[in-house]
Amino acid sequence: MSAPNENTLASPVGTTLDRYIMRKQAEFPFATGELSQLLRDIALAAKIVNREINRAGLMDITGNYGAQNVQGEQQQKLDVVANIRFIRALKNGGEACAILSEEDDEIIYTGNDQGRYVVAMDPLDGSSNIDVNVSIGTIFSIYRRVSPMGSKATREDFLQGGRKQVAAGYILYGSSTMLVYSTGHGVACFTYEHSLGEFFLSHDGVQIPAQGTTFSCNEGNWLDYPEWVRCYLTQCKERRYTGRYIGSLVADYHRNLFKGGIYLYPPTAKNLNGKLRLLYEGYPLAFLIEQAGGKALAGTEAVLDIVPTDYHQRAPLFIGSSEMVDDLVACMAQEGVPTAKVA
């Protein structure tokens, strides 16, 4: 009787995030390991936040924290927990010299003035869904600093613009926890294996379908949307597209990335510039979608081409399958809106 194949006895478990990062480090001629370590620090914080989310109901860390963040939004307890965890991981990692968070007004200095990178982040997106066990996420964006090494990070380090990102990504805390990121060489997705405590590569070279049949939008604001947005949504309904809106940006985005679709957060009469933050929501997700073959638009221009002027600047967001974004642009032209500049 022949001996069993060794792969039958112990099949490979896959490629870990650490091994993947090490292999890809050669894509950066200037890199000396700091960016790789920074991504590991983010992954470590994600594991800790994942643990906190999974036991939130047992630890009394759901519900309101009792304060508002700089955006004027009611903070949830898990917002505060996630913010602390990511800041602590980035400080201890030593590679980031400064952090910009949705939960804080000003730059957070890590004390690591020799760090080569700055990080902008939304520590926990989808706060309104926390208490009802709906998928939520973390969004992050990484820049190579432009201020002198050894000095404090400056405003200019964070206001370089979306095209200057060296890496961006998000973590989805859902039925499985997934880390999706890009360093400008395609999009990779990793799934967390709880028993081993590791992220394993589950999807490499992710590409969004050019056409989809799903639109994600809060139609409760229909009467406040511009006519060209209503024109496009009407077109979606006439084509019998499916409306899917979770109300958690990362979750809606993730579904459309893999299945095809478009996410819309238009301007309204009350919020002429939209509500999503450019630096730590718009830029990183637009960076990823372009790497995956999709498009991201903010009104009349590509998201990544908007010139930032403020840490917490807001912008509309229309992001997803390229042909669906093109259809939106056609509706803009039909309603007399200047043709959007989108790649």
From TrEMBL:
InterPro entries reported in the protein's UniProt record: FBPase_C_dom, FBPase_class-1, FBPase_N, FBPtase, Fructose_bisphosphatase_AS
Domain Fructose-1-6-bisphosphatase class I N-terminal: 16-203
Main subcellular localisation: cytoplasm
Key word Transmembrane helix present: no
Cofactor binding annotation: Binds 2 magnesium ions per subunit.
Highest taxon listed in the record's lineage: Bacteria
Fructose-1-6-bisphosphatase class 1 C-terminal domain: residues covered: 208-332
Alphabetized Pfam families for the sequence: FBPase (PF00316), FBPase_C (PF18913)
Pathway of action: Carbohydrate biosynthesis; Calvin cycle
Annotated binding of Mg(2+) 2, by residue: D122, D125, E281
CDD domains reported in the protein's UniProt record: FBPase
Cofactor: Mg(2+)
Positions contributing to substrate binding: D125, G126, S127, S128, N218, Y245, Y263, L264, Y265, K275
Signal peptide per UniProt: none
GO molecular function terms attached to this record: fructose 1,6-bisphosphate 1-phosphatase activity; magnesium ion binding
Name of this protein: Fructose-1,6-bisphosphatase class 1
Gene it is expressed from: fbp
